[in-house]
Amino acid sequence: MQEISLATGAHMRITRPGSGTVVMCVNGGGASPRPGNWSPTIEWLVDRLAPRYPDAAFAEVRYRVRSWKMLPSCIADGAAALAAVPDADRVVMLGFSMGGAVSIACAADDRVSDLIALAPWIPEELVLSQLAGDRVTILHGSIDGVIPGIPGVRPAHSLRAADRLRAAGAQVQYRRIPGAVHGVAMRRNGRLVPLPRAGAWLRDVEQAMDQAGLSGGP
């Protein structure tokens, strides 16, 4: 895995640099601006997806500052990550939480063909027209935002966003994951610990990857 400093000052780490297909993974962020981190949800998924899809590179973005109040800064970091993979002829965006909004904004890059949004935040003012004709899969835990201490975006919000995306011309699939909360994994004592229904998240992401035409192993 190679770590790259981006033009904005953010960082990206990537498996198999130089691959023609890149899965660009972008994280979420809370209300309070905090230094960027490597997302445990994204990292847990990439650890399992990268061996299954050996023909694709998997890139993870670490923002300069992670906060939905600084969305333009996070979008700029995502765009810088795309600029750092000039050899890619196709990009699949994988966004968690606020990363859903970042992924949508980054879909203005013509190489983006598919978007997989996990428990996404998709604000009403976000422009969606660049996704016309693209495949969009939205996955959301059924009890996101219900459990105290694990704040998130409720599935009803992303369901409304799915309708807006369809109206903008995107090909949208929407699935709820019963019993899942906001996220796939957390970091505890330096280790990645899967959250409830992590296996279901992984299965549905793999299904979206397969539908996107990525070449997977057994």
Average pLDDT: 95
CATH homologous superfamily placement: Alpha/Beta hydrolase fold, catalytic domain
Globally, the shape reads globular
Number of helices: 5
Defining traits:
single chain; 218 residues; alpha/beta; Rossmann fold; two-stranded antiparallel ribbon; 12 strands; 28% helix
Q: How is this structure best described in words?
A:
The chain is of the alpha/beta class and 218 residues long. The chain has a single domain, classed as Rossmann fold. The chain is built from five helices and twelve strands. Strands 1-2-5-3-7-8-9-10 form an eight-stranded mixed β-sheet, sandwiched between helices. The chain has a two-stranded antiparallel sheet with strand order 4-6. Strand 7, helix 3 and strand 8 form a beta-alpha-beta unit. The protein starts with a strand and ends in a 7-residue tail after the last helix. The mean pLDDT is 95.
Architecture blueprint of SSEs:
Layout: E1 2-5, E2 11-14, E3 21-26, E4 34-35, H1 40-52, E5 56-62, E6 65-66, H2 71-83, E7 90-96, H3 99-106, E8 112-118, E9 135-141, H4 155-167, E10 171-177, E11 185-188, E12 191-194, H5 198-211
Parallel strand pairs: 3-5, 3-7, 7-8, 8-9, 9-10
Antiparallel strand pairs: 1-2, 2-5, 4-6, 11-12
